[in-house]
Structures are given as structure tokens and as C-alpha cells.
């Protein structure tokens, strides 16, 4: 019989590891569960531990799969049959192939969560952990339904953020293109006319001509190279832990956008933690997953420190309040939820509140950005036009005098 190494958790979230001999992965999973352990990672000795990279699928495709599988399991159909049905009807052939592989692994004795874990590009740690908790509690259909609701809320949140960011990016790009077009093609024609003037050009006009000459000469290549180098350096810095933290901290302090991004991070924290704890994942394990899915290094560090404090005997509300990153309302509601045993419900209310706050912030941002961008376009285009006509007006005043 093969020997497996495993990492598992107790009901209170403590990690345990070891090795056991069993007939199959499924037999090992059942053995661990009979000891009150929830398997986290199982690897057969002598086989590669690296999960398959595999394809990516659209988040909407995963959402539909999760909701349909929940319905199938709730209707009493076997899991294998449900996977076969969904593999046949999905339009994404890559995803269909993944579902077929998962079905084969489950049929071979692996747990559903272990089979999902082999495809990390599709099924995240959160997804696998919730499925594992559903399997351990025998409540897989309800956990899948909670997962589907969670994925739907996250998709709606991303849609709102995209809506808030797309318009200003497109509008600002148009402003830059219009300004570049005027500077590259219109300004040189005026510069030829100005060259015949026997007078010193105004400072704004000379600056505009200098910019135009730079954009049309080899010096522009140096400017582009500097910009590319700066972008690459910034991206490399952002890939370091310190860089991610400093950049995320800076974005949270941005005017207008910073407040919205903070609300998004708090909503994601509350929604993820509520979904995990409601599905039966232990609080310490849930905090580890929330840390990895926070989407913001500042909040990830706070959650990591909160996990250490909870492990040391503190309540969750205490370290969150000390961090200064969470509003008093949030930490007090979490504290009340811990005292009354209604933490999941409180977290859900916090998430619902901040979802509505994000929606209001997006609407306000959209209405605020439009006049700002119109004003910016007027300043840029108007400034170029004024700089071009200043010498003409100056010359006409000299002639009249």
C-alpha cells in the first residue's frame, strides 16, 4: 500500500502533519476524519507535489458551475453524476476537461476538495477550504450555495470598481491623445509662421514649441525609454513584500479613490470571513485564507497579526481595533458578534453595509469625475490655443500701436 504525507487541521484550527499508509487517498481522508482531523494537503510519497497549472476560466463560468452543482447535490443526485452532467453541458471545453479530471479523481477515491486542489488557477484556497468543510460536516450543498452567493457578490463588487475606473481612464486617454495631436501636427505649422516674426515669442509659446520639437525628434525615444524603465522599476518594486505594502498604503491615502478602496477591502474582508466561518471553517484557518485573498497588503498584514493574536487567546476585535485600519463601527460590531455567538451574521451585515457604501461611492465618483475631466480638457486644449495665439495677438497690438 502507498504511503502518504499529510497536513491536517483540528477543529480549532491547529495544524498537524505526519505520514500514514493507506489503500488510497480516500481511505486516508476517512481515517483522518475519524480522528477529528480535516485534511488540508495530502501527497503520495514518490510523486510530484506540484499542482497542475492548468487553464483559467471566467469567474462567471465558475459561478454558474458552483450554483448548478449546489442544486444538483441538493436534489439528491450523486456528486459524480453531477460533475458528469456539468462537464457535458459547459461551453468552455477547457473547463469541461478539468471537470472530467476531477470526476475521475473522485471516482478513484480522492475527496472532492483534494481533486479541486489540483487546479489552483480555477479553484482558490477559499473555494477548496469551504468545500472541505462542507464535506466534513455533510453539508456540501449548502456550502456550495454559500460559495455561489459569495462569488456573485465579489463579481458585482469587481463590476462596480471597473465601472468607476473605466470612464476616467478612457476620458483621460482621450485628453492626452487630443493634446498630443495638437502639439505634434498643429504647433509646427504655427512655429513656421512665428519664425518669420521679428520679435521675441512669449514664454508659454516657446515652451509649447520646445515640447513639440521634443515629441517629434529622437529625444522622444529617450523619454519613452525613461518612462518604460520607470514602469518596469515600479512593477518590480511592487512585486516585493515591502513594495506591495507601501504602494497599497499609498493608494489608501489617495483623495476620493482611497476611501473607496478602503471600503472595498473591508467589504471583502467581512464577506470572505463570514462565508468561511458560516461554512464551518475554523476561525484561525479562515483568517489565513482571508489574509491570502485580501487583495491589499495593508489589510493582509492586519489580518495576519489578528490571527497571531487570536491564537494567543485574544478576541478578533481587539487586534483589528489596535491596527487603526478598521473603523470603530466595524470592530465594535465584530466584538458584539463574538460575545453573542453571532459573528457570521455581524460580518454579513458589515459586508452588506460596505457594499452599499461602495455603490454610493462609485456613483458619487462618476458624477464628480465627469466635470473634472471636462475642466481638465478645457484647461489643456485652451492652454495650447492661448499659447499659439499669444504671438499673433502681440503682433497685432504692435501694428495697431
Task: Describe the protein.
- The chain is mainly α and 401 residues long.
- The protein has 16 helices and 3 strands.
- Strand 1 (3-9) and strand 2 (15-21) form a beta hairpin.
- The model has no long low-confidence stretch (mean pLDDT 84).
Provide a concise account of the structure shown:
The protein has 401 residues and is mainly alpha-helical. The protein is built from 16 helices and three strands.
What attributes characterize this protein structure?
mainly alpha; three-stranded antiparallel β-sheet
Structural class by secondary-structure content: mainly alpha
> Order of SSEs, N→C?
EEHEHHHHHHHHHHHHHHH
- Please give the largest β-sheet: 3 strands, antiparallel
Q: How far is it from the N-terminal to the C-terminal residue, by CA? A: 106 Å
Number of distinct beta strands: 3
**Strand order of the main beta sheet, please?**
2-1-3
Question: Treating each run of at least 4 consecutive H or I residues as one helix, how many helices?
Answer: 16
Q: What is the 3D form?
A: elongated
Considering DSSP H and I runs of 4 or more, what fraction of the residues is helical?
Answer: over 70%
